[in-house]
Fold this sequence. Notes:
Number of helices: 5
Number of strands: 10
Largest sheet: 6 strands, mixed
Low-confidence stretches: 1-6, 8-23
Order of helices and strands: HEEEEHEHEHEEEEH
Amino acid sequence: MKKLKLSAAAIIFGTILLLAACGPGKVPDAKNWDVDSFTFTDQDREPFSKSDLKGKVWVADFIFTNCETVCLPMTSNMAKLQERVKEEGLADVEFVSFSVDPEMDTPDVLKKYASTFHVDFSNWHFLTGYGQKEIEQFAMENFKTIVQKPKEQDQVIHGTDFYLVDQDGKIIRYYTGLNKIPMDEIIKHIKILQSN
Length: 196
């Protein structure tokens, strides 16, 4: 009788393990940082909010059009990622670039800047329409990254990462957006999120 109970327990435990293995995958080392609700203005002068991203996986970064160093390669890399997502046939993936210099980056300026990279605006929104202090606080509180515009300077200090955000608005992972972009890893993680 004891052996029978042990065998039954082993079968149940094995079944649980098997079911767990077949369940939805998880992105390793997920941060699960919540992004606060926001409503900003995109390159078409339209309001764009976190609720517009509900149910979609999205990739975000922080850039500005007058940047003399990192923003051009970052935006180029994001454009390559957008193209790769298309090639993989992944639907419901959005791209969001927050301007860290909102006073200079009007919707028209952002649209002109983005157009030089031949981006697809159907799923990529360049956001502005907030104050400098607001974006600095938003970046730090949500993305744990610095944004700072020193007084009397036209360059803005900011991070260079790409942030992967899930369908519920939680930041899952971040990756370098500047050099040696881990494209395969990002695509893999998007697929995992979309399979859940």
